[in-house]
Design goal:
single chain; about 210 residues; alpha+beta; SH3 type barrels
Length: about 210
């Protein structure tokens, strides 16, 4: 009888451990899918809400709403805008509008900063935000992950006797905020990991560690 009781006691913790493992595994699998789906639905509904006032009245009489109509409309409008500004006439209109904005003290600063950011994001250059490095920060023997954006130019370069790299040091768990640093080339260690893998490492606070490429 004693051996039977001891066997039952040994089985119970094992069963509970398996149930706990299965439950946590289910959370790991379901959470990213649920959050991704929620963000996608929120984005589609938000864009649809922005463009619904411009939709023809015939769409309101449809028995079923058309999800994604705003995204399709935004794609068409932005494509037409890009085609318009790519020719001489459209470019002249944009230049004239920018000259008007440049006369407004606060607005011109906001517009100029946003324009530069979006031009950098839309750039097709392979050197923009495509290299991952390690550097000592915030002190010696303490290392951080950063992204190389470009090499220092202009006044920054002329005031330093070394070749500097312009790097973006993101914060955890929000990699969209961070610090702009100018670091000598010889003081960084270039890594083989991709930008996506480095972003996962930063967002997860080191829990998702990328494997070393063979």
């Amino acid at each position: 009888m004693t051996n039977t009781k001891e066997t039952k006691l040994k089985l119970k913790p094992s069963l509970f451990s398996k149930i706990r493992t299965y439950f946590l595994t289910g959370i790991v699998v379901a959470a990213p899918i649920t959050v991704t789906g929620w963000v996608a639905i929120w984005f589609i509904q938000s864009v649809d809400g922005w463009f619904s006032p411009f939709a023809p009245d015939s769409f309101d009489s449809l028995p079923v709403s058309i999800p994604g109509f705003g995204i399709i409309s935004a794609f068409i409008i932005l494509t037409l805008l890009g085609a318009l500004t790519s020719n001489f006439f459209g470019n002249a209109i944009i230049s004239y509008g920018e000259r008007l904005v440049d006369r407004l003290p606060i607005v011109r600063n906001i517009y100029g900063a946003l324009k530069q950011i979006f031009q950098t994001i839309a750039s097709k250059s392979e050197n923009n935000f495509q290299r991952v490095v390690m550097l000592e920060y915030p002190r010696k023997d303490c290392w951080a992950i950063a992204f190389v954006t470009t090499e220092a130019k202009g006044e920054i370069k002329s005031n330093h006797d070394k070749d500097l790299l312009c790097v973006f040091l993101p914060t955890t768990p929000n990699p969209t905020s961070g610090f702009l640093l100018f670091v000598p080339k010889e003081e960084v260690i270039e890594l083989d990991m991709s930008v996506e893998s480095a972003a996962k490492l930063i967002i997860s606070a080191g829990l998702v560690m990328p494997e070393k490429k063979s």
